[in-house]
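Researcher: Sequence of GTP cyclohydrolase 1 follows. Predict its structure.
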Amino acid sequence: MDAIVTNFPRLDDQSDRPSQKEAEDAVRVLLRWAGDDPQREGLLDTPARVAKSYRELFSGYDLAAEDVLGRTFEEVAGYDDMVLVKDIPFFSHCEHHMVPIIGKAHVAYLPNGRVLGLSKIARVVEIFGRRLQTQETMTAQIAKSIDETLNPRGVAVMIEAEHMCMAMRGIQKQGSTTLTTTFTGAFKTEPTEQVRFMTMIRR
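Model: Prediction complete. Tokens:
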């Protein structure tokens, strides 16, 4: 069964977004809740810094993968084999605990007459990474956005990541890695293409 994916495109209507002051006040509440004093010298500028860093860490909500993937190239001199960009580093945040997910993504596609600029693939990973995520959803979102925009013969995505919600809290198992994959088109229907993809990312 295929995953149901919501891409969460950027919001053109920002009327419901809290103000900078409201975000900073919320941080002050959390500081008090944690047991500290927001008025002490070391924390005076912390609310503003946190709000600023969150704006950067979650900047993916203000971007749409479709915009990044919009330009493609048709002059490929007959090339129709796998295009793979591997070991793309990313930082995301778990939507359940809002703690970091640190990992790398491997993304491949089989061209169908058009190719993408290689940096566009890394940008797509960045856009979906800079949102509150589950790794499973992020894997499917990357594949879906490339599949729908480029219409290739197939897309393959693998993500390897360490979840700080497992390393810093709860079970506290450092160093464990979660792997997720999504395949479309020929990568899904032809096992040999999956094997090629897996072999190439392990070289």
